[in-house]
Amino acid sequence: MKARIVTLPGDGVGPEVTAAAVAVLQALAGHYGHEFSFDEQLIGGCAIDATGEPLPAATLAACQQADAVLLGAVGGPKWSDPNAPVRPEQGLLGLRAALGVYANLRPLQVHPALADLSPLKNERLQGVDVLFVRELTGGAYFGAKTRTDDTATDECKYTVAEVERVARRAFALARGRRKQLTSVDKANVLETSRLWRSTVQRIATEFPDVKVEHQLVDSMAMLLLSQPSRYDVVVTENLFGDILTDEAAALAGSLGLLPSASLGESRVGLYEPIHGSAPDIAGKGVANPVGTILSAALLLRHSLQLEAEAVAIEAAIDRVLNDGPHSRDIGGQAGTQDVLDAVLQALDGYA
Ligand code: ATP
Ligand code: MG
């Protein structure tokens, strides 16, 4: 198949990890006879430096016409002055809003070879395989904000339609997995959570084969650490999702390992590793490319419907995490290129 992929390497380690993921996609296209074209565009700090804007119009236009967008990371100390007129992060928030990607998917698995890096004991980590679905374009992040000298407010608002679409997406994903959905809210206190819960409950009737449970966010924070292997798909609102997914990421051992996909109604998905621009290691060739390479696998699965190709990448990564080489963040000595070479070699066996 033919596909147009826009790459947004961004700042810090972004270009290093994006280049690795592109190399994997190119190798895969060769194996399977696909024609992928790559169109590199500016976003974040490097875009501010070049154009004065964190999300140049040319970047947005290219993304809107693409089949999928692969992003590295944005931001860094050079652009972190809070009083600056434009900031790199505005580029990413603006892109998410413009693409309407309301569902943020973050799969979490704990690789047995890396269990020592996790704060939890081995037996609790066995079989952990959770898919978080975080609502990404509503709630407190987008509500009205007010501020006087001694009072501040952040409005948290959800409509039934906003909850329905993310709930349907989560149920559909659960249907393709172990058919269990956990919906997380704070329905004992918050009105938005009561609307969330009743809406999820109603959508559940469309998916009678999926088992639903509701958890309060405070208990869920605890259960994720005490019984992480109990969960299949977890759906929650924007703020709770932000916090719970970072908590869950700690279980995997390194930020450098985890991918994400942000999806909306249109076909264009946005794929990026969960880590930031890691300015402390940028330009040194030591960043772990695994989170970005796994994001490329999600791109193949969710935007291009190339499931076998996605599985081939995941199998190659699994092999490399098992046999090495390992980058520094997971206790090894390997650089980005060493890990990439090993993934490409493993891919030969799976693709
Ligand atoms: P942001 O504010 O952009 O989300 P952050 O504050 O969460 O960024 P990161 O940039 O993700 O921070 O970096 C946090 C730590 O994790 C740093 O020490 C960084 O070097 C390390 N780190 C992040 N990504 C990687 C990676 N791909 N490989 C190795 N180490 C990484
Ligand atoms: Mg962060």
From TrEMBL:
Locate the residues binding Mg(2+).
Answer: D218, D242, D246
Is Metal-binding among the key words of this record?
yes
Q: What is its EC number?
A: 1.1.1.85
Taxonomically, which superkingdom? Bacteria
Pathway(s) annotated for this protein in UniProt: Amino-acid biosynthesis; L-leucine biosynthesis; L-leucine from 3-methyl-2-oxobutanoate: step 3/4
- In chain numbering, where does the site feature Important for catalysis fall? Y141, K186
The main place the protein resides is cytoplasm
Q: Which Gene3D superfamilies match?
A: Isopropylmalate Dehydrogenase (3.40.718.10)
Cofactors required? Mn(2+); Mg(2+)
Which keywords has UniProt assigned to this entry?
Answer: Amino-acid biosynthesis, Branched-chain amino acid biosynthesis, Cytoplasm, Leucine biosynthesis, Magnesium, Manganese, Metal-binding, NAD, Oxidoreductase
Which residues does the annotation say bind NAD(+)?
Answer: 76-89, 276-288
Q: At which positions is substrate bound?
A: R96, R106, R134, D218
State the Gene Ontology BP annotations.
Answer: L-leucine biosynthetic process
Query: What family does the entry list?
Result: Belongs to the isocitrate and isopropylmalate dehydrogenases family. LeuB type 1 subfamily.
What function does this protein fulfil? Catalyzes the oxidation of 3-carboxy-2-hydroxy-4-methylpentanoate (3-isopropylmalate) to 3-carboxy-4-methyl-2-oxopentanoate. The product decarboxylates to 4-methyl-2 oxopentanoate.
Q: What protein am I looking at?
A: 3-isopropylmalate dehydrogenase
Q: Which gene encodes it?
A: leuB
